[in-house]
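Dig into these lines:

——
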Amino acid sequence: MNKKIVIIGGGLGGLETGYILAKHGLEVCILEKGILLGGCLQSYKRKGQIFDTGMHYVGAMNEGESLRTLFNYFELSNLSWHKLDESCFDEVIIKGEKYSFANGYERFVETLSQNFPKEKGNLDKYVSFLKSVGDNIFTRFTAKDNSDISTSLFGQGAYDFLCSTFNDQRLINVVSGTSLKMELRKETLPLYTFAQINDSFIRSAYRLENGGSQIGDTLALKIKAMGGNIRTNAEVDELIEKDGKIVAAVLTNGERIEGDIFISNLHPAATLGLIKESEKIRKIYRNRICGLGNTMGMFTVSLKLKKETLPYQNHNKYIYETDDVWTVTENLDKIQACLVSYAVPKDKKWAENIDLLVPMSWEDVEKWNGTKIMQRGDEYNAMKKAKANEVIEFASRHIDGLADAIEDFYTSTPLTYSDYVGTPMGSAYGVRKDFNKIMQTVLTPRTPVENLLLTGQSLNLHGVLGVSMTSFFSAAEVIGMEAATSGLDIKIS
């Protein structure tokens, strides 16, 4: 197959899709508008410390588990992965009450049963269900129709499932409490999204030492070694359609990049925005895609700590000052929840930097939309500083010594994500999947334009595992699923 593949966007989805296709001998050219690759996996350095942006930990990375299997294929398993505490990889704090999440199904049930002894049987049913979802993750590669397990679960609500599984409302909130890595909405969140993500972390949980940029950099090196071309500072301004096919990508500097197949790692709405004139994309389709709801954004405070002042915690903390974790995104005027993630320090003893993440509304930053990075003005900087102080005060109420340990801090808003990653409204998890509208919100790689495909977090699932799975679906549209998954160490029936 002698075809040139042009991939727009050097985030995880674009890089992994490019890796698969380059591995099968196709000519791959990846165009990234920024100076760094990796999208939400980018990390940055300040005063000697490395800070992550979007990725803070991953699940299912033990040998034989799903993400490890995928990362073996992508040659990413040998990076500096650090395992979190198996007895407590996540700690959920709801109004001062602490609950530990342990790795392994039996240990997970045993640990939470100490807080909820009457719910042990229901906890057993819960983890059995999660396990069935995780065990069947790769059947999606072989499904010939809509009969695979994910399809039916995408059409069911996560909250309704939890209410039918547990009797104790507090336990419903606890098992949902590590879900700031997705958008908890009772009326939309699909059961499959909730189940697959939570299952992966119960299996195992790891942090990456020295920053998430290693993933993008490693993939880029491998793609180049296979003959691929990766260009940064190459922002696509327009996709040119002729006779019903995309024939070229035009960069902002006027350069024209021709190709046979184009794959966009951008948000679907942003992709359509690049096509000014089209015979294939009807107005009704364009309006549907551009009208899709987007998940919430995040405000991040990255803390640089004074030396040897705060012990390192080998787990994450999810802190809530509300009894109902499912309503956090309904009112973002007040901070009600915070994810606390410790970067792995060199000595594994004293924390060096910590990220504090809280949900944030696009409306809080919308009036600065269109301004340039580092040039947004005093009012924007004052808003960020005030918000950061509020977040730090919130976290300090639950972490002894935190406030006194801070040497400096850096912030990012949904507007930061919008500028660097190109996601509309700074959405943290892409298009909002809605179990009531599965056909409209769970997208496939195909578009009405025959040689234009999609990849990335807005299609099936977000997160490192979800995007890695999606990259195979996108590549399969070019070379077929059997070829795309050849070399992947799973049983294909």
